[in-house]
């Protein structure tokens, strides 16, 4: 329950601190993000900021298409098994049932704990057999995740995010083997997404193996805001092919990220098992993103 309490804390702060209008009565796209710390917006320095999910919500909001946005089902450290467990809870089912658009980031926390990153020496290593078992578990869990979502929601568009290479600071000769494991992870996610009728969003080509500016902390795998923007634009490419990307200038409108300790201080006292009441929202037929040229600006709503 401690994790759940901290997650609610993060969600409450990001939603209430945002300039993004969240009118639960407005018709439009109801967007739910689930998964790990990339979906939640963890920074390279143990803070919570704007994720690619917030930027996607911003893009939808700026074109008047967004009804609501929640990343209440995203939490730093979530593995595919933990995402599956979360989806089996009533609170999660209620959110997923009402969603028109769902994005998922899950799988890296199944694999990355098996990779040793010596950021001082610039070396990484892993054990092949445990990694193979972990990847097999990712496949099995994704099959169950998609089934769990479709049990309660047959119509939502599901987009599953791929992963980038998170060790650009290690020595060049160290990269190929681990990059191969990340490529296998992405392939498994893509295969199961295709089988389930979901969409896979590749991001690895945008980052490459040397994205030091986007992953600035050698001891941490999380991206800077520019990296999250690349992930959001990878989604835009898949969601609305040929549409102009979210401009980099939007990053100057985002507030500074907030440390975990400050988030804890801002959380109002409440019972850990208290369920928030959700107001129903009306739905109209969805449309794709049409323009980033107009609309209001907004602030932001493991891997590991």
From TrEMBL:
Please indicate which superkingdom the organism of origin belongs to. Bacteria
What is the organism field in this record?
Answer: Pseudobacillus wudalianchiensis
Protein name according to UniProt: SGNH hydrolase-type esterase domain-containing protein
Q: Which UniProt keywords apply?
A: Signal
State the Pfam families in the record: Lipase_GDSL_2
**Which residue stretches does the UniProt record annotate as biased composition, category Basic and acidic residues?**
269-279
Q: Which GO terms describe its molecular function?
A: phosphatidylcholine lysophospholipase activity
SGNH hydrolase-type esterase domain segment(s)? 33-228
């Amino acid at each position: 329950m401690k994790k759940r309490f901290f997650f609610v804390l993060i969600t409450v702060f990001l939603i209430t601190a945002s300039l993004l209008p969240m009118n639960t009565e407005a018709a439009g796209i109801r967007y739910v993000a689930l998964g790990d710390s990339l979906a939640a917006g963890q920074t390279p320095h143990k803070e919570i900021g704007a994720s690619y999910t917030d930027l996607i919500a911003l893009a939808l909001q700026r074109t008047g298409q967004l009804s609501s946005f929640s990343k209440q089902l995203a939490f730093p450290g979530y593995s595919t098994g933990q995402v599956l467990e979360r989806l089996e809870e009533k609170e999660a089912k209620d959110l997923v049932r009402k969603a028109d658009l769902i994005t998922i980031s899950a799988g890296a926390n199944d694999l990355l704990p098996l990779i040793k990153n010596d950021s001082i020496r610039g070396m990484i290593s892993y054990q092949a057999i445990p990694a193979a078992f972990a990847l097999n578990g990712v496949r099995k869990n994704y099959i169950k995740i998609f089934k769990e979502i479709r049990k309660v929601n047959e119509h939502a568009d599901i987009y599953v995010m791929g992963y980038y290479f998170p060790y650009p600071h290690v020595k060049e000769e160290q990269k190929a083997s681990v990059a191969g494991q990340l490529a296998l992870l992405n392939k498994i996610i893509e295969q199961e997404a295709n089988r389930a009728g979901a969409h896979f969003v590749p991001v690895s080509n945008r980052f490459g193996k040397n994205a030091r500016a986007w992953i600035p902390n050698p001891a941490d795998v999380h991206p800077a805001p520019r990296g999250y923007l690349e992930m959001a634009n990878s989604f835009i490419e898949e969601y609305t092919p040929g549409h102009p990307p979210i401009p980099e200038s939007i990053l100057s409108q985002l507030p500074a990220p907030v440390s975990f300790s400050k988030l804890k201080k801002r959380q109002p006292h409440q019972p850990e098992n208290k369920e928030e009441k959700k107001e129903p929202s009306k739905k109209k037929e969805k449309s794709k993103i049409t323009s980033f040229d107009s609309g209001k600006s907004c602030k932001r709503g493991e891997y590991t």
